[in-house]
Amino acid sequence: MQFGTFRRFALLLGLFAFVAVIGGCKKQVKATAPAPAPAPAAPPTVTLNASPSSINSGDTVTLSWSSTNATDLEIAPGVGKVAPQGSTPVTPTQSTTYTITATGAGGSATASANVNVNAPAPAAPPAAAPNVSELFSQNVTDAFFDTNKSDLREDARTALTKDAEFLRSYPQVRVSIEGHCDERGSTEYNLGLGQRRAEAVKNFLVSLGIPSDRMTTVSWGKERPFCTEHDESCWQQNRRGHFVMVQ
Amino acid sequence: MKPKTAVAGILAVVVALATLSTAQSARAQDWFKTGTGLGVSKARLAVPDDAARTTAAQPLAKTFHDVLWADLEYSGIIDMVSPSFYPLSVPSQPSELNGQAWAAAPANAYMVAYGNLTADASGLAFAGYLSDVHNPSAPPALQKIYRASATDADARKLAHEFADDIVALLSGGQPGIAQTQITYVSARNGNKEIWVMDYDGANQHQVTHLRSISLTPRWSPDATRIAFTCYVPYRGITSAQICIYSMPLGRLTAFPRFRGTNSSPAWSPDGSQIAFMSSENGDPEIYVANTDGSHMHRITFAAGVNTSPTWNPKTGQQMVFVSDRGGVPVLYLSNSDGSNVQKLDLPDMGYVIDPAWSPNGQLLAFSWQRPSGNYDIYVMDIVTKQLVELTRDEGRNERPSWAPDGRHLTFESTRTGTRQIWTMLADGSEPRQLTFEGQSESPNWSPK
Hints:
The structure holds two protein chains of two kinds.
Chain A: H1 2-32, E1 45-51, E2 54-56, E3 61-68, E4 72-76, E5 80-82, E6 86-90, E7 96-104, E8 107-118, H2 124-128, H3 132-139, E9 143-144, H4 154-169, E10 174-180, H5 187-207, E11 215-221, H6 232-238, E12 240-246
Parallel strand pairs in A: 2-8, 10-11
Antiparallel strand pairs in A: 1-3, 3-6, 4-5, 4-7, 7-8, 9-12, 10-12
Chain B: H1 2-28, E1 43-46, E2 51-52, H2 58-73, E3 78-80, H3 99-103, E4 111-120, E5 123-132, E6 142-148, H4 152-170, E7 181-186, E8 193-198, E9 205-206, E10 214-219, E11 225-234, E12 237-246, E13 251-253, E14 262-267, E15 273-278, E16 285-290, E17 297-298, E18 306-311, E19 318-323, E20 330-335, E21 342-343, E22 351-357, E23 363-369, E24 375-381, E25 387-389, E26 397-402, E27 408-413, E28 420-425, E29 432-433, E30 440-445
Helix pairs in contact in B: 2-4
């Protein structure tokens, strides 16, 4: 999410820079073009072309135009005042009809060009750059516990220390810490044990400097197992403090 | 000659080993079931078919008799006389009773329960009698007209009422359980919801529709409300909370939400308070509050999990709960204000969970997983600490809950491959499976 916003912002900045350059050109043209002799004013003419006229979202279209008898030209939306002839790249995010208005001593004229933007494939933008929730699932690992225990093993401390690094790098990320238990023991006992596991994980992260208001805890007891076999390897999978990113 | 001898020698050793191992395994299974609170001499009762006085009553008479028979047979205090020993002439009212014929061999009955059914546009009526066959001239011990609508469901209801009246007479006033209900958790429709059924497994119906996870239902002492563990949002976080469902209102009533995990509610014997586990202040401890959530106060103070509180239903002065303060979850006994905590010592290691106090306050049922075995149901005498094992070698058996007569227990068992609700007599005999669909758990028997 954060990366996407930044990218869009950068594109906009680029676009503004380009428009600024075009604007600069216009001034130059205005300065060097000799003013025509005052004569009976002819009505202005103008043409506008968009190439290509159909793109995918994120691609660039070149708008090109030419005019006669015009002193002021403006392309809408989003481009602004332009020189009597020229071209400029635009990156519309949705289908857009660009209109150029040419104004001269003899009146005004308009021309339009339609750009069709195909909707992006839904999966495409996340695939382009990993977003925070992907980085979260790649970097944040759960803490595993011994039977009947809610104190942190050495491997859990190692995992949580790395998790704390991630949480420090992404201070906007909030987490829910879920305590889970294996199928042994009663439903009621495991609800309590799961809560203690979640609290143990939270307290350790707090001791590493993660603010406690970024973390909530919940116990699922043995109600939401990761694995349903009746053996130790499966039970170990179910004895954990599990991280869920909260948006 | 020589090889033959060798072979014979090996055979002898094998036989000896086999004998030895058989003897050992026989010893390993040398356990016994002892009666607890069950009458030593059972009344011998004959229950002939009940006469249908109208055509419309005929199909209902069969339902009525089947339900009545099952209720009385499962009461635990009655020795049912087999119908093949009955005299040919069956009474439908006291004037038709030939006491001698029922008292004589092979019936050898002590009493006869009989009557007649009438069904018409105005409804169903059953005239029921219980007579002492050795004293036929005396008025029947019970004669009563039972009325309801002429439906199969109401025929069941009337049979339960008649059965309870008979049991109350034959057990010295101790009420029967034929009209009681069991609440439990079933996920057969997708989510774990609270369900209720009759004590014999009939009339199973879903009570809550919360579409999350609902657990650990417990009847209030007057059997009008069910407190349970529900997952509901509180301050933006979905967590375990205490919910109370009112049967007459048909909806949840207000109970406050608390931080963290809140679960395993239990009612005080007078119905005015609820004990439950809460991690409101970090560690899961037991708290007591009024049924509207007011006056919440903590009664356990030990690091670890403290849960599954259960009040002594007779006195209200003591509590048993589960705590892992010593390493593994086992049972502790305390005063109901949390003072005077003592561990309930057992002669072996393992998890000890699911305490359930018998209605008379003398016995404690619980689940115990000994290191050598699976979860099984035990009953302990609170004073003498004498133990009886009620289940063995048949899957996981957990969550015992006493019937109000103190003669029956309901529990959950995986003995058929899926987790289902069962009942049994309190000596471990006559296990009956009540649920069959999906998975069901956590039964709780209504106190009335």
